[in-house]
Amino acid sequence: MLFRSVLLLAGLASSAVAVADNHTTLTVYTQPSFAAEWGPGPAIKQAFETQCDCTLHYVALESGGDILQRLRLEGASTNADVVLGLDTGTMETARQTGLLAPHEISLDNLDLPIDWTDPLFVPYDYGYFAFVYDTQKLPNPPTSLEALINAPDDLKIIIEDPRTSTPGLGLLLWMRAVYGDKAGEKWQKLSHKILATTKSWSDGYFSLFMNGEAPMILSYSTSPAYHMAVDKTDRYQAARFDEGHYLQVEVAALVKSSEHKDLARDFLKFILTPGFQQHIPLKNVMYPATDLGDDLPAVFDRLIDPGKTLFIDPAVVAQNRKAWLNQWLNAMIQ
Amino acid sequence: MAAFPATTNRAPLSRPFWHTLPGLLVAGGLIALTLAGLGALIWQARQPDVSELWNSPYLRNVIAFTLRQAVISTAISLALGILVALALLRQSAFPGRKALLRVMELSLVLPTIVAVSGLVACYGREGTVTQWIGHWLSYEWNLYGINGIVLAHVFFNAPLAGRILLQSLESVPAPRRRVASQLGLRGWWHWRAVDWPAIRPVLPGAGALVFTLCFTSFAIIMTLGGGPGATTLEVAIYQALRFEFDFGQAAMLAVVQLIICGLLWAFMARGDFSANLSPQRSFAGAIPRPDCGVIHRITDRLLLLAFSVFLLLPLIAILARGLPSLSEVVFGDGNALQQLLTASLRSFSIALPAGALSVAAALAILGLGTVRIPAVKKLSNLTPAIPLMVPPIVLGTGLFLLLRPGLGDISQGLALVALINGLMALPFTLQLLKEPFNGLDRASLNLADQLGVLGWYRWRWLHWPRMRAPLSLAMAYGTGLSLGDFGVIALFGSPAEPTLPVLLYQQMGSYRVELAAATALWLIASLGLVFIGFNALGRSKAPSGAQQLSLERLAEMRHA
């Protein structure tokens, strides 16, 4: 009885939404930031639906890791046709599940800082990890990773934990790419400047950085674009580091058990068209995966030039991640 | 007497299985859920390497740290909770006492990320309090590290402990209070004879509850812990599941957590403290406590004042941060307001049933507790704590596997969220209802048995008058916890139809910091409304009517 009234009430709450079911539905597993009302999801859904005679249905899972986990749990019985929101950190694990199928589409018009010929994964955007700083509190930020590591200990920074967060893992790889086996010692030196190592980007950004707890936080080089374009403030900028910046590419892939493979491939093709890409810069706050030309918002010209692109092959990362994490832990706990 | 049922007819709901069946269903459901979650992980996994537990210095450190911070946090929370509860009991005329109680209730259900943001604004490096301390005491307070972890845990849990303890202190039978008053018991003697016996039955449960909350704490530990040295088992489980995809290790660590917390609960529940021998059905008015002297008056009020400041400062910080943008939202173009209102409606349509469900489940479990079979009794003591001891992602996985084939459209998903939220709130509602329910004295129960006041009538005439206020409070906690929930809704909800917390996280995740602050404030206001509303509901219409009076008189006479 109680349960029935629960059903009733919940039904009332969502009765405003009718699900059109008269034609094919393409199910896309993705991340909340993509599917949210102000994310790129809704506009992309609308654009794709006008050309496909289908319904695009987003299922948002908490993170790229969750998408992968859900896929593994469901195996071949999954409802997903496409997964969108994995990245260079999780794609190797995804590849190993054997649950994904080749995309078989042309990647010619990709405009990435690295060569990309992967048969499974279609990039939809990319970004560089960078430290974002508050210009009012820190007029002269460090200009290199080395300078940050050697800065006086009263410069405090906020980072995310590489065990639970994508940017966190990004910094781990960044340090690895710059310092190789010496990364451990450098981490030890850096550790005195770390105010907090938060679970997620949001915890750090909302609870600490925006409360003025530390003048620098590990984020993306594109973050200031949002503040400049939407918040209309130049207060938060990314610090350019001489060693170069570590690259993250976000990808989509076709699920092997999909019953609508043709439609799914159409969607993957659509990813590399302006209809999809134009929503990326300000709604996902990342660089588009193709050249948008003049359609790239002007604020993107004011972002830092990352210089050298640092990138470790995802297969190498997958092999070494656990060992590198342990080295990091040892360095930090000492 | 007319309202009493004739003894020859069976009262509704008086068959024995009404005591056991609902409770067994709830308990069985919880156990099935846990086993499904753990089973799914193990079934998917490689054989976990159990020796890693004692061979890996990392895991050893994690377990040691988890225990250490939980013990410290629990000890301080309980001690402060007892002091505050006693002060509140003695100072019934403390101005703002009611408001303080509402704030105490509110603090537990605040979404972690919001509360942490408030705490940081007060006690962080740039925090107002930190600067006062630095200026007036020239002491350099550092939030990050064990300090911050304990501070945040005390912020969440001391009010909870205080609230539970106050409730049992208030239910001290009037005759006992009267005797203590007549004897002029003071200080230690009053504590020994009146307060401690009232607190003792709930203290183990409250302690276990707070300990489990601190033991499984996650985001607080990571945000305020300062570095990976501060890692709890829950973090390690999350890491194993989300990043390593090492399901075996995740399951193993979840079992370790379950064992440690489970042992504690079993230990706490070993003695049956609940038997209350003194008659307590008198609803007599205030009996002056002999220790309401001037010194207590001053110290109590100072303590309460300090405690109020401790709880209010972070809330004020949240208010200050959110108010400007909330007023923009309210007086703005209406789009953002519309979104906020829709999300609120959705949140409440999940939270109210969830609250009702958790109260119903708690009553079912309490009914199970009246069965005189030790194993069943134990079951009723231990299973409700399961939702706290098993990491939500493990429970979520279990649920997902159990229910996925039947999961259809979104409304079923939301109903499921209400169901799980209700179960997650069970440990709290149960703590609040346990004493009022079990505290009925043997003499009354025997009398009721003789008169055939069973089933529905027993509930209506014996329990309801005593439980009206606790039930409302439990309902408020159940609703509030669900209203602030993010974990479960993230699993089964839909991002296109966000609840308030989901909206909050979406805004935070996409740089909409100002909007997020507004949503946080709105959420807190809604939570406050829930507690104010339900408390008012629990108070209004004090047990009245001739029937009620006759019952009381009947009871009093027998003991006169």
Automatic annotation (TrEMBL), chain A:
Protein name in the entry: Thiamine-binding periplasmic protein
Family label: Belongs to the bacterial solute-binding protein 1 family.
GO terms under cellular component: outer membrane-bounded periplasmic space
GO biological process: thiamine transport
UniProt entry tagged with the keyword Transport: yes
Localization per record: Periplasm
Signal peptide: 1-20
Coiled coil regions in record: none
UniProt keyword terms in alphabetical order: Periplasm, Signal, Transport
Keyword DNA damage included in the entry's annotation: no
Any GO MF annotation of the entry: thiamine pyrophosphate binding
Automatic annotation (TrEMBL), chain B:
Transmembrane segments: 21-43, 63-88, 100-121, 141-166, 202-227, 247-268, 302-323, 350-373, 385-407, 413-433, 474-495, 515-537
Gene3D superfamilies membership: MetI-like
Organism this protein belongs to: Marinobacter santoriniensis NKSG1
Tree of life domain: Bacteria
Domain ABC transmembrane type-1: 63-268, 344-533
Family: Belongs to the binding-protein-dependent transport system permease family.
Subunit structure: The complex is composed of two ATP-binding proteins (ThiQ), two transmembrane proteins (ThiP) and a solute-binding protein (ThiB).
Protein name: Thiamine transport system permease protein ThiP
